[in-house]
Amino acid sequence: MKVIHLPVMLREVIMLLKPMFGGVYVDATVGLGGHAEEILRHIGHGRLLGIDRDEETLDMAMKRIPDNRLTLKKGKFSDISKLAAETGISEADGVSFDLGTSMFHLKTAERGFSFFSEEPLDMRMDREQEITAAYIVNKYPEKEISRILWEYGEEKLSRKIARAVIDYRGKKKIDTCAELSDIVYRVYKKRGKHYPATKTFQALRIAVNDELNELRKGLNEAPGILKSGGRLCVISYHSLEDRIVKNFIRDEQRQGVLRILTKKPIAPSDEEVRFNPSARSAKLRGAEKI
Ligand SMILES: C[S@@+](CC[C@H](N)C(=O)[O-])C[C@H]1O[C@@H](n2cnc3c(N)ncnc32)[C@H](O)[C@@H]1O
């Protein structure tokens, strides 16, 4: 399958990260390597470590960018210091995060992220992990499902959807993405601006991959591997993530660890959103190590 890869806010990331000749960089979410490729163009004989928790994505990145300045490592960015140390990097000139899933995940039906797919409801970024979205909707108690939908999806109908999930699974196990979409659709009864299952799918994806805890841990680790003057860039895609990033950078500034570079988050240009609508919710924030 060919996935057209459009790295989000590429120009803005490069302007903020300022990759320099001979520098050492860590791309904590290398994905298919769109940002990585551009960083490599700026660093001459420098080095880049690319981390991703998804093995399949890393294989594709490796084929796309054969470059001996690039080291690719499978792992979670909550382990960024350990992964950097294993690669011989104790201090970096820049660390970047581009959160969430990649186009590759969303467009590959069998990864179980898309509403209409008849494939198993999976949503794991790391396929070695045990818990899938199907496990959550079939095994978790009603209250916990409702909490996940409310907290991670800000879904107003969280209780009703959780009830519908419990009713459905009493008769039949929920196996596919399309089955879950249909359950949510029937609770909503009509289509709004977004597809009714959008928030439910976001919430489950966050829960399956423990995304918010990962983000908190990854951010906490990042300043520890930055040189003084080194830069941190983070692209987030929804308000829960952006709030964590904003508060983290603000607190680190108060403690004299980081200096904020973006008073307000940078948004993608209208032109980029027109060309790549999935960039529309992106927010980029940056900070410099003091
Ligand atoms: C939006 S994509 C990155 C796209 C990349 N910047 C590019 O230009 O190709 C996010 C990637 O981060 C990975 N990812 C998400 N959470 C992660 C985590 N906690 N640790 C490591 N990788 C993670 C996903 O598997 C996915 O490939």
CATH superfamily of the largest domain: Vaccinia Virus protein VP39
Radius of gyration: 20 Å
> Major sheet: size, sense and barrel closure?
7 strands, mixed
* Number of H/I helices: 13
Estimate nothing, just give the exact number of structural domains: 2
CATH topology of the largest domain: Rossmann fold
Shape: globular
The fraction of residues in strands falls at: 5-15%
Question: Which strand order do you get reading across the main beta sheet?
Answer: 3-2-1-4-5-7-6
Low-confidence stretches: none
Encode the helix/strand succession as letters.
HEHEHEHEHHHHHHHEHEHE
Number of strands: 7
First-residue to last-residue Cα separation = 45 Å
Instruction: Please report the first level of CATH classification, the CATH class of the largest domain.
Output: Alpha Beta
* Ligand identities: S-adenosylmethionine
Which structural class fits the helix and strand makeup?
alpha/beta
Mean pLDDT: 94
Helix content range: 40-55%
Write up what this structure looks like.
The protein has 290 residues and is of the alpha/beta class. The protein has two domains: 174 residues, Vaccinia Virus protein VP39 (Rossmann fold, 3-Layer(aba) Sandwich); 79 residues, DNA polymerase, domain 1 (Orthogonal Bundle), CATH 1.10.150.170. 44% of the residues lie in helices and 15% in strands. It is built from 13 helices and seven strands. Strands 3-2-1-4-5-7-6 form a seven-stranded mixed beta sheet, sandwiched between helices. α2 links the parallel β1 and β2. The longest helix is centred in the C-terminal third of the chain and has 16 residues. The radius of gyration is 20 Å and the shape is globular. Bound molecules: S-adenosylmethionine. S-adenosylmethionine binds next to α2 and β2. The site of S-adenosylmethionine (SAM) has 20 residues, from α2 and β2.
